[in-house]
Design goal:
Blueprint (H helix, E strand, L loop, with lengths): L8 H11 L4 H10 L4 H10 L18 H6 L5 E11 L9 E8 L5 E4 L5 H4 L5 H11 L2 E6 L6 H11 L9 E4 H8 L7 H7 L11 H10 L2 H25 L10
Parallel strand pairs: 1-4, 4-5
Antiparallel strand pairs: 1-2, 2-3
Helix pairs in contact: 10-11
C-alpha cells in the first residue's frame, strides 16, 4: 500500500474540517483513506501546526433576543398532566379502552369515551379511534403524572398504539405517585384510594361498581359508561391533589 502525499491547499483544509468534526472511528477511517496510520495522520496535522480546529470568524452567528425567544411557541405544552385510563381489563391484547381522562394542572379534564366512536356499535373490539385521540392529546404535553401508570396506563396505551400501527409517543417525562409512595412511605397499601385516605384527601361518596365495567364493555350500556367516565374524572382530580402533596418527595423526573 502506497501512502498518499501530505495534503495541501484545499485538500488540507477539507481534511482538517473533517478530522476535527468526527469521532475517533471517523479519524481512523480518514487515515485509511490517505493510506496512512492514525498516528501518522496525527503527526501530519501536528507538524503543520494544526493541532486544534481553527475557529472561523466569517460565519455569522444567530442571535435571538429574550422577547423573541419567549414569543416562540413550543411544540409541546411545558406542563404537568394527570393521566388515567379505564379499560375492560388489564391486558391490551385481551381488553379494550373504555374511557380516558387527561387533566392539565389547574385546568378542566379532557375526556374520551369509546361510545363516541362509530365502531362502538358495530365492533367494540376496534378501539383504534379512541387510541389515536388519547395518544394525540398526550403527545402535546411534557410531563405525565399517573398512579401505577408506569406499570399499567402508559404500558396499556403504548400497547394499543403498537397494535394499531401508530407512531410511538415522543420523548416525555413521567411521575408515578405509586412509585413515589413506594420509595418514600412505609405504608401497608399504596393504592390511590388508600393513600388518599391516609393523606386526608376527600374521596367521592359513591363506590365503583365492578359490574358497571362489564355492562359497558359487553353490553354497550351508555349509563354504565357515564358512570365509568365520572369515576375516571374523579380519579384525575384526586391524582392531582395526591401529586401536589407528593411532589416534595420527588428527587428527579425520569423519562416516561
Amino acid at each position: 500500500m502506497v501512502a498518499k502525499k501530505q495534503p495541501n491547499g484545499a485538500e488540507l483544509e477539507k481534511l482538517v474540517e473533517q478530522w476535527y468534526s468526527t469521532d475517533h472511528e471517523g479519524k481512523v477511517q480518514l487515515a485509511k483513506e490517505f493510506k496512512v496510520s492514525y498516528g501518522t495522520m496525527k503527526h501530519w496535522l501536528s507538524d503543520l501546526g494544526l493541532t486544534r480546529k481553527q475557529v472561523r470568524t466569517d460565519i455569522p452567528t444567530m442571535t435571538v433576543t429574550a422577547p423573541e425567544l419567549l414569543a416562540v411557541s413550543p411544540s409541546v405544552e411545558l406542563d404537568f398532566v394527570m393521566f388515567d385510563l379505564e379499560t375492560s381489563g388489564f391486558d391490551a391484547d385481551w381488553d379494550i379502552l373504555l374511557t380516558a381522562a387527561i387533566k392539565p394542572y389547574g385546568k378542566e379534564p379532557i375526556t374520551f369515551r369509546a361510545d363516541n366512536y362509530p365502531e362502538w356499535t358495530t365492533n367494540r373490539a376496534d378501539d383504534r379511534g379512541i387510541t389515536i385521540d388519547i395518544a394525540s392529546e398526550l403527545r402535546k404535553h411534557a410531563i405525565v403524572i399517573g398512579h401505577y401508570s408506569e406499570r399499567f396506563d402508559v404500558r396499556f396505551i403504548r400497547a394499543k398504539m403498537f397494535r394499531h400501527g401508530l407512531e410511538p409517543l415522543p420523548p416525555m417525562f413521567g411521575l408515578d405517585t405509586w412509585r413515589i409512595a413506594k420509595n418514600n412511605f412505609k405504608v401497608s397499601n399504596r393504592r390511590m384510594k388508600s393513600l388518599s385516605i391516609f393523606a386526608r384527601i376527600p374521596l367521592p361518596k359513591e363506590e365503583p361498581d365492578g359490574d358497571r365495567w362489564m355492562r359497558a364493555a359487553f353490553g354497550g350500556e351508555k349509563e354504565a359508561l357515564d358512570k365509568i367516565l365520572a369515576h375516571n374524572i374523579d380519579d384525575v382530580l384526586i391524582l392531582e391533589r395526591l401529586a401536589c402533596i407528593s411532589f416534595p418527595y420527588v428527587k428527579s423526573i425520569p423519562r416516561l
